[in-house]
Amino acid sequence: MKVTVFGIGYVGLVQAAVLAEVGHDVLCIDVDANKVENLKKGIIPIFEPGLTPLVMQNYEAGRLKFSTNAEEGVNHGVMQFIAVGTPPDEDGSADLKYVTAVARTIAQFMNDHKVVIDKSTVPVGTADRVRAVMTETLKTRGLDISFDVVSNPEFLKEGAAVSDCMRPERIVVGTDNEEVVELLRELYEPFNRNHDRMILMDIRSAELTKYAANCMLATKISFMNEISNLAERLGADIEKVRMGIGSDPRIGYHFIYPGCGYGGSCFPKDVQALIRTAESIGYTPRLLKAVEDVNDSQKTKLPAFIKRHFGDDLQGKTFALWGLSFKPNTDDMREASSRVLMETLWQAGASVQAFDPEAMDEAQRIYGHRTDLKLMGTKEAALQGADGLVICTEWKNFRAPDFDVIKNALKEPVIFDGRNLYDPERVSKRGFVYYAIGRGA
Ligand code: UGA
User: Fold this and answer.
1) How large is the greatest C-alpha to C-alpha distance in the chain, in angstroms?
2) DSSP β-bridge partners for residue 352
């Protein structure tokens, strides 16, 4: 099938590459000429396991194309995906200007029936807005061409985006038109073979499903972080509690890892956007507000531990930091806990020596101007002469370090672990003071 994808961001690029991989003819359109030229040369704008070869193979096979020419994009496919960003605007609501701009473009150039598919995370009611913008634009052209608007939210995780997209747990389709369902069945047939993963519903429910999913996961995390704060004060170990409750299948082991707060481009933004949506219709979302509140304060936990240990004035101190990205297997630092940590340490007069397996370029881009941040080539180099070690991201190669190397490199054997990577007893036996989340520090 011929498919057009507007927006070569995370969701758009992964979705496009995966659709091309199963044989569809996919044309990606983006306003960023530089990005498009780079993609043609095999330069992928994001780090995502498995994505580069997938894009390159399909580009070389001619199934995946890139262009800035919107008209060409509109003429290419019956299926027109909107996968552009929905960044938070000033009050935290999702800003739909890119989504509506694409809708206008499609209506400006279309000459026959189109199925417009919202892939971006968009507030409830966006499909109606897309429809209104398109109808309006078609009217100014004096045309009355039919089109459908479908909500088909994406549930991929950064770091596992390709496999999530190749083997989706569910394909949520919100539409009011039975015929469109058949088209989408055909499009997704390769991913839907063994059992039917398509969940059909009305458009508004599909739009809300996306927010509900992310907010539920964020709620699980904030709940665990709240319990970890209790565990810490009650002399209990949150890791034992986690295993104790996870064994109940109604609770499950997923997404109950306490830590130094959730980050990324989705949870913080989506929780906030749903809060704004609720408030805009006169409903006070008490639980969602608490989820956000707990997360904001959880991000200040590591700096608070550090101040508890060293005092409020950190002038002249240097901290080794392992992990800059908001989670492992990505170079994404959006809303990462490491940023709150570093900014608080800098404010208190300390400097940071940081290492991350993938996010060094990103850190350079954001904080390259800072003289109180040194980006180090290895995790061992980051330790040299530092007053303590802080861990913000649970990258695999931080899990079994040589503790003697750490001890010898640090001025003082103290670890502030925001991801509970080590056994507190064992680390203490090796002579460290060990601060972790919800483990009685
Ligand atoms: C999230 C969702 O998991 C995806 O299903 C969704 O499609 C995506 O948002 C999106 O809307 O695009 P992502 O932001 O890539 O995916 O990352 P997650 O793996 O969900 O992690 C988010 C944050 O939660 C990370 O900072 C992670 O460290 C934290 N987390 C996760 C915890 O603190 N504890 C946990 O138990 C799990």
Assistant:
1) 78
2) 319, 373
Catalytically annotated residues = 266
Question: What is the total residue count of the chain?
Answer: 441
Given a cut of 50, the residues of the chain with pLDDT beneath it are: none
Residue 115 is inside which H or E element, if any? strand 114-118
Q: Is the CB of 267 under 6 A from ligand 1?
A: yes
Please state, in angstroms and rounded to a whole number, the distance separating the CA atoms of residues 321 and 34: 33
Spatial distance between the Cα atoms of 310 and 128, rounded to a whole number of angstroms: 55
- Tens digits of residue pLDDT in 326-356: 999 999 999 999 999 999 999 999 999 999 9
Distance (Å, whole) CA 184 – CA 153: 13
- The atom number, within ligand 1, closest to the CA of 332 reads 15
Ligand 1 centroid–CA 385 distance in Å is 34
CA 122 vs. chain centroid, Å, equals 15
Q: Find the 267 Cα to ligand 1 centroid distance in Å.
A: 7
Q: How far apart are the CA of 36 and the centre of ligand 1, in A? A: 28
Q: What is the pLDDT of residues 189-205, one digit of tens each?
A: 999 988 899 999 999 99
DSSP 9: S
Ligand 1 atom index nearest CA of 254 = 36
| 49-80 tens-digit pLDDT | 999 999 999 999 999 999 999 999 999 999 99
**Which atom, in ligand 1's list, is nearest to the CA of 264?**
14
- Report how far residue 132's alpha carbon sits from residue 151's, in angstroms, rounded to the nearest whole number: 15
- Residue-wise pLDDT tens digits, 170-189: 999 999 999 999 999 999 99
Whole-angstrom distance, CA of residue 179 vs CA of residue 160: 32
- What pLDDT shows up at residue 88? 87
3-state secondary structure of 109: helix
Domains of the chain, each with CATH number or no CATH: 2-201 (3.40.50.720), 211-296 (1.10.1040.10), 299-435 (3.40.50.720)
Find the angle CA(359)-CA(393)-CA(85) to the nearest 5 degrees. 55
Q: What is the pLDDT of residue 441?
A: 53
- Which one-letter DSSP state was computed for residue 81? E
Name the binding residues for substrate: 155-158, 210, 255-259, 263, 327
